[in-house]
Each structure stands twice: as C-alpha cells, then as structure tokens.
Amino acid sequence: MSREIDERKKRKALRKLRKAAELAERGEGPPLSDWEREFLEEVEQRIETYGSAFADPEKGNLEDPMSALQTQKLKEIGKKARGKDTGFKTRKPLGWKRKQDFTPRVRQIDEDVAETEAPAPRSEPAPARTPFGVIRGSELGDQTSETPITAAHAKKPARSSQPAEPKTPQKRPAFRVIKGGKDDA
Fold it and tell me: Which of 12-16, 78-82, 140-144, 145-149 comes out lowest in average pLDDT?
C-alpha cells in the first residue's frame, strides 16, 4: 500500500510534525487540544509506516507525504504552538458603530392621524432645473421680465413676446397589419 515518496519530502514533513509537537510542549502558545495532539501523532505514524498519510488521489498530490488539508492543518497547529493568532478573523461590517445605536421604527396604532384633523395641503414641488443653465421649453412660459439675465440666458436668441401655445396631447399610434408578412402566402 505504500507509495514511492521522495525521502527528502518525508523527512521534511516529519521534521515539521515533530517541531510543532515540541513547540506545543514548551507552552509558548495556548495548549493544543486532544484532537490536535492525536492528529500530529497519527500523521507521523502513517508517514513512518506507509510513506504517506493519505491514500485518496483527489485529496492532494500523490508525490507528497501529506494531503493538502493535512498540510494546512499542520501549519495552523504550528502557528498556534508558536503563540501566533490562528483561525479566521471575523471582520466587522462597514458602519457597524452606527448600527449599534439603531432603533427600529415601529408603527404605533395610536399614532394614526385623527379623523377630525384636516390633511395638510400639499405644495407642488418646484420643477427641477437641469444643470449648466439649460432652459426647458416648459419653463419659458413661467418667466417674467423681472427675471435677471444670466450668462446662460444671454447666449439664447431673443424670444418673441407671445406666450407659447399649449400643446395638444397626441393620440397613441394605431396598430396596422401589413400584408405580405410571414403568415400570408
């Protein structure tokens, strides 16, 4: 069942396993869990016995003594044994401080508008003007002679004194069938 693994790669993997176990015994970082100690012992035993610690070719390179996940876990155990931060760090989302003070808006039934109160009259919003002094045709009828002339107005040709005639709404175009199409023979 053993595969032909390069002796240098086996020695390197065994050296890393033993070094991680030795650093954990020194106690520089937090102590290893039972599972992590078992992992180091079992992987070392498999490499010494079979030359490799895994058999499934989908789990790593067959020329390596350990699978990709075993190598990754060994790196994590090594970092933990050295006392460096390990594992995933959760990032706080942007604006998390503002969300702490957030209180949800809940509708209260008592806050409904009383039926006796008259609704406030709505004022029409002012028509939006386009940037850079462009004047729409619909806005031309609203201007008076008291309006100051700006650079944008000065570039425009003089307008006649007659007000613009209101446009009549156009009807929707009628649907027409043109003969000689796909269905016609």
Answer: 145-149
